[in-house]
Amino acid sequence: MAAGQSKLSQKIDALMEQASEALVQRRYFECERLGIDAMRRALGALDFDRVARIALPLQEARRQIRDMAVDTGNVVCVNGELPMGAGLKAGMYLLSPPRVGVDGRLLREEATRREVPVVVLVREPPTRQGLWPIVAVGPVTVRTRIDPPAMASVPAAKATAAKAGGRAAAAGAKPAGKAKAAAVVPKSAPPVPPVEWLLLACEALGDEAIESLSPGLSLVARVLALAERLEAVPDHEKLHQRLEEAAREAARIPPKKRAAAKPTGREAIDDDRNARADE
């Protein structure tokens, strides 16, 4: 058993070393793939010390990928066929009905395979109160409800114009000169939400993933629950940080006690607020 555990630890360490090298070389997708592999192996072994060490490099790789997506200024609304293959471009995607949460996960997985930087959000039909439910699907489902974008009726040309301005455009700076003139889209282009709203929606979704954790969870169960939520909402930086903190604390628990504390079932993330249908 000890020999097997040692081999597994060596494998995880080798993956982490490769991930660190990829991060230094700015091969962010490679770093993410290696980090996910190492994370899953460490979680399976309840090796929380290594889980903690993996979380922050994984966060950094994903932050770089997210920034590349945002820097394009490209915002795409999808309620029909998912863009796949060569049709999938870097940018931020908002999926709406009849597309569902699972479609958002499929789109992100396709982008990861093709190494295309994207941020993907999925909204469900508006509630009676006019809120937009935002959902993410992974081993668990995360859902929150937020106000719709105040600028949802702004033509897509405005979002496209931000492309030449990078993050400055996403923050509200207006592109000038040739960049502005180049922002030409068909008049029939559907309206899109502003980049700022999409980023706020991402934050709200990740915050809900953290806040919905049951306060009565054991430390071991908390680490595993945070890891599941991170698979559903991989772009949220604080979620990586909360996982790292919980894992570091759980690493102090003796291995036998960790194994005994491992939950046998899966805690549902949807509490009464989220599970109720809001017609």
Short note summarizing the structure:
The model is unreliable at 152-188 and 266-279 (pLDDT under 50).
Walk me through this protein's architecture.
With 279 residues, this protein is an alpha/beta fold. The protein contains twelve helices and five strands. It has helices at 2-24, 28-44, 48-71, 101-114, 156-161, 166-170, 177-181, 195-211, 219-232, 237-250, 255-261, 272-275; strands spanning 75-78, 91-95, 118-123, 132-137, 141-146. The protein has a five-stranded mixed beta sheet with strand order 1-2-3-4-5, with helices on both faces. The longest helix has 24 residues, at 48-71. Mean pLDDT is 85; it is low at 152-188 and 266-279.
Number of helix segments? 12
Largest sheet: 5 strands, mixed
End-to-end Cα distance: 53 Å
Number of strands: 5
Structural class, judged by helices and strands? alpha/beta
Mean pLDDT: 85
Principal-axis shape: globular
Beta-strand content estimate: 5-15%
Regions with little confidence, pLDDT below 50 for 5+ residues:
152-188, 266-279
In the sheet with the most strands, the strands line up as 1-2-3-4-5
Amount of helix:
40-55%
**Oligomerization status of the protein chains:** single chain
Q: H/E element string?
A: HHHEEHEEEHHHHHHHH
Rg for CA atoms? 20 Å
